[in-house]
Design a protein that fits this description.
single chain; 158 residues; mainly beta; five-stranded mixed beta sheet; 11 strands; 42% strand
Length: 158
Amino acid sequence: MYRLVTIFLVLLLTACGTSNQPEEPESQPTNGEASEDKKEKSSEGNDSVSDELQLNVVSFTDNKAVIELQNQTQSSKELQFSSGQQYDMWITDQDGKEVFHWAEGKMFTQALKTITIEPGQKHTFEVDIPKLDPGTYKVKFKVTSKPPIETSFTHTIE
């Protein structure tokens, strides 16, 4: 019995082994652009994130943002996701204080998912947002695919 327990523990420890190699930080490509270098646009504008896929702000109202990802190519494009989360959104006020983070406090399934966008087609993301006080806000929207696609724009509420 002692030998059986010992063999089991050795196998268990071997299966759970550790690595002495330091972990490398996961890179997050942004289609050739660093997120800090993106031009800010008004909510009426569009922000091209690559020559292939383009994020367009369709509407930004008191309680909902609608953003479309359009395939600008002549071939199908696949977006691969490693969880149930397909997007995220952050809204900061004029002072840089975060007033809304869509994914905060949410949990997502760990599941591989692929979305195919055909040539010229669009994939729409609808995000429920809180009512915001009058002011100018910076909005960052990110499609959480591998690699991620993101855009930033400003929106003024009067």
